[in-house]
Amino acid sequence: MTNIILLGPPGAGKGTQARRLVEERGLVQLSTGDMLREARDSGTPMGKRVAEVMARGDLVTDEIVIGLIEEKLKSEKARGFIFDGFPRTLAQADALNSLLNRAGQRIDAVIELRVDDEALIDRISGRYTCADCGEVYHDRTRPTKVPGVCDKCGSHDLRRRADDNAESLRQRLMEYYKKTSPLIGYYYALGDLFVVDGLASIEDVAKAIDNVLDQALAG
Ligand code: AP5
Asked: What is the pLDDT of residues 174-189, one digit of tens each?
């Protein structure tokens, strides 16, 4: 089993790199953001409860997201998982450790995508996503080959996220620095942290992640 955490602020490129790792390494992506958006859009009682929280850019409660991850770990059969956007608090990190321990597994590498706030604003404001297959694009750095058509699945349903606005982004960043960035020290102390320059091109970030994984998985 190979278990990887992608850590970084909103817009750092976690989703973009996670999708590539799924294709190239046959791992399963567990994105709590995607799970929560699915619950919100399907109007489940939990989805209704989290919709406002997400729109504001606040974190959803630990109880809800840990529950979502626990369910997926039980139901998905995989060679390993890429945790994208989870854990985001120390309580979530502790819960993940316990869940993996119980299954006789561990985290192999925590990859921090390091970027600066200026770049994040540009990335978030230019992002759009395919509503059908989830492929992530950017107006300038990664546009679709044919305008308005997803390269991957041919869908014409390309959307911008409701929380990708200046006010919500400010709050998402605040939440990141207050509650998630302490995880950098936590995983450093455990000896699991690898830092990658997230400001490089998508291809160069991918290469750096591959180098980290070769190193971490060999050790
Ligand atoms: P979530 O969906 O996880 O959003 P996020 O962490 O804010 O991260 P993003 O999806 O915005 O960015 P990303 O790092 O994946 O970047 P991407 O690859 O898209 O969470 C949303 C909300 O759900 C949270 O605010 C919270 O309310 C809730 N939530 C989720 N998980 C939770 C948890 N565990 N606990 C509590 N609440 C939770 O890239 C961004 C753009 O940049 C794209 O356009 C892309 O094409 C472009 N790009 C990517 N890499 C590069 C590059 N190297 N160079 C140039 N452009 C690039």
From this structure: 999 999 999 999 999 9
